[in-house]
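Hi F.,

I've been meaning to write this up properly since the lab meeting, where we talked about keeping a consistent format for the predictions we share between groups. The idea is simple: the sequence comes first, exactly as it goes in, then the structure tokens exactly as they come out, then a line or two of notes. No screenshots and no reformatting. I'm using this chain as the first example so we have something concrete to point to.
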Amino acid sequence: MIVVTGATGQLGRLVIAALLRKVPAAEIVAAVRSVEKARDLAELGIEVRCADYIQAESWDEALTGADKVLLISSSEIGQRANQHRNVIEAAKRSGVKLLAYTSVLHAGTSALGLAAEHRETEALLKASGVPCVLLRNGWYTENYTAGVPAALAHGGVYGCASDGRISSAARADYAEAAAVVLTSDNQAGRVYELAGDTSYTLTELAAEISRQSGRNIGYVNLPEVEYKNLLVKVGLPETIAGLLADSDTGASKNALFDDTRQLSTLIGRATTSLATAIAAAM
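Output, unedited:
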């Protein structure tokens, strides 16, 4: 039995879809905060169990009978480590044979502000003694392609990444990697640094949007504070705006770069290209 936490989230749903191509639905459990939002998963024959990261007591039942668990990191910045602890401790009590965790690229040395909670979670995993595998995911290409309509509307891509190179991949690529690991043997103790096959700067991102749209879209590099304020102005919560601006600054120091191609090796195909991702967002 494989339990996927946060199964109705963007990554969780893609992992479920990838797992369904490998194992019967009866071997998958979707752990979700809202059972109502998972009705479509239940209709596929997947068992749905209610569990909330902030409710420690909910995880003992959610992980009953689990052989393997995919702990998809919480989206609640500042609360992640404590929430992840609830799942890890329940996994230990349940005798889970493998816990896979979606960490961040180069978590041990990363300059990204968001890496701190991932490092803390990795330390909790190590201390727990639960057999684990780390899926250190790089940036999602969708983090940038979601802004394609705005770039077209305003005639520019904005950020504070300077000329840092970003080795992103599509969420579906990372989801497929998680499914491969969860259905493979001898994964405990492994650490995967997962990133796209090729890298790009935000100037190159803007150039590809220009090529596909036939319009002149440039890249405007801003100081981090100004970029954060711009994101808040267009409607993002301050915490998320701060995270994205900090991540762009990290990208300027190549914190989102990796050229080891561990992701494509794991999934047995090339990662989704930037051109393909932009075309899907146009």
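Notes:
The CA atoms of residues 42 and 67 lie 20 Å apart.
The chain has two domains: 2-137, 138-168+195-258+272-282.

If this format works for you, I'll send the rest the same way.

G.
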